[in-house]
Amino acid sequence: MNYCESMREKIGNAPLIIVRPSVAILNPSGEVLLFRYEEGIWGIPGGILQLNESVEECIKRHVHDDIGLKLNSLSLFGVYSGLELLNKVEGSGDEYQTVAIGYICTDFENDIKPDQTQSIEAKFFHLDQLPDEIDPFIKSQLKKLSFK
């Protein structure tokens, strides 16, 4: 059982603060890697921090497990929190307040190999040609990359 599941048993549906590192992976052409679960919306790879794990270890683990890439170096892009990152899970009613830590990575290895057991799709997009079905918060942050 992971940390969030353990906390859910104790607090029920009450809001839980989670730390969610995410990474904008950019290829040499300046395209960003987006991924999604089957029939979901597009976003950047990320995961939920577990106990006894650094933020960098967390994001590297999730990216390797979910899409097969080894991240060699990360640059901090920003730390985000607030009402726009308050989420309520349909069905369960669980509430989460997310503290998102965004990174940029241009130094990675391996080929993209999405985890088929989770029905993950992943591919690179030009920053000016992002899909319509993208998380609005992620889209607003990715627009800032074209100016860096």
Write up this protein.
The chain is an alpha+beta fold and 148 residues long. The chain has a single domain, classed as Nucleoside Triphosphate Pyrophosphohydrolase, CATH 3.90.79.10. It has helices at residues 3-11, 55-67, 136-145; strands spanning 16-25, 32-37, 70-80, 86-88, 95-109, 120-125. The strands form 2 sheets. Strands 1, 3, 4 and 5 form a 4-stranded mixed beta sheet that branches. Strands 2-6 form a two-stranded antiparallel ribbon. Strand 4 and strand 5 (95-109) form a beta hairpin. The longest helix has 13 residues, at 55-67. The radius of gyration is 15 Å and the shape is globular.
Which tags fit this structure?
148 residues, alpha+beta, Nucleoside Triphosphate Pyrophosphohydrolase, 4-stranded mixed beta sheet, two-stranded antiparallel sheet
Mean pLDDT: 91
Helix content: 10-25%
The CATH homologous superfamily is termed: Nucleoside Triphosphate Pyrophosphohydrolase
**Helical segment tally?**
3
* Structural class by helix and strand composition: alpha+beta
| Tertiary shape | globular
As for the CATH topology, it is Nucleoside Triphosphate Pyrophosphohydrolase
DSSP E strands, number: 6
Largest sheet: 4 strands, mixed
Detail the poorly predicted runs.
Answer: none
Oligomeric state, counting identical vs distinct chains:
single chain
Name of the CATH class: Alpha Beta
- Topology as a string of helices (H) and strands (E): HEEHEEEEH
C-alpha termini separation: 40 Å
Q: Beta-strand percentage? A: 25-35%
Cα-atom Rg, whole angstroms?
Answer: 15 Å
Total discrete domains: 1
